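Changelog note: in this version the structure field was regenerated for every chain. One regenerated record is shown below for reference.
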Amino acid sequence: VVGPDPWTAEYGAVYSTNKKGRAVGSFKLNSGYAAKDIIEHAVVVHASDGSRVGCGVLGDYRESCSVPPGSKPKKLRACMSPYPGYVSIDPIDISGKIVVEFDESTDEIIYSFNVKGLESKVTGAGTHIHAGTTCDDADLVGGHYWDAGVVGPDPWTAEYGAVYSTNKKGRAVGSFKLNSGYAAKDIIEHAVVVHASDGSRVGCGVLGDYRESCSVPPGSKPKKLRACMSPYPGYVSIDPIDISGKIVVEFDESTDEIIYSFNVKGLESKVTGA
């Protein structure tokens, strides 16, 4: 599509830094690819000697870049959508958020929900954490997730308070506490399920770090990408400031060019054309 490698100084794929080692700027080039082709690809920042010092993976721009790499979550959230195979009879699809926090003094989960698109005026329907780690396949969501060796019988029942109620518009807002026998590190990436009043599964989400955004509609295609930058694997900075920041990639459909913008710190001081 484009011939020779465009990721060179000749085509403008370079950055410069100030005296504090910060690079802010942008360039345009045609790589021959669109957003759907390069999402989840690595972005690399090189030093002036060509060595690799920074790295990030391109994701949807609407997702947050605030989660420190390798950090452990203390609060989880699931972005809710219709359960696989479920078709709503209401014009409003199921959406919203379920948040799970941990009370370390009691080992209990604080399970909070704000979900819409449910049945109207329901009392005592169930919502639970499940054993599966996906909402893409109904056969893999599994049953309730708890550690029987720690807490005994299944706590994900009405008896233990694992229920919600809705208003006349089908919105459920509230919370409950229970002990599942698990901590955040044990349940992250597990599925959360919302049941209808008849017990059928109508809503699903996967628990992730609360600091990540819940604003990306499931299945939507990105038009703008971002990479959250951190040190390249194996690279050790000689500066007290580690490499961090963001690289954003947009597409100019009129020219098929990439608009490649960068705001990265922790690089060499006063570099030109790296």
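Spot check on this record: The first strand starts at residue 23 and ends at 29. The mean pLDDT is 87.
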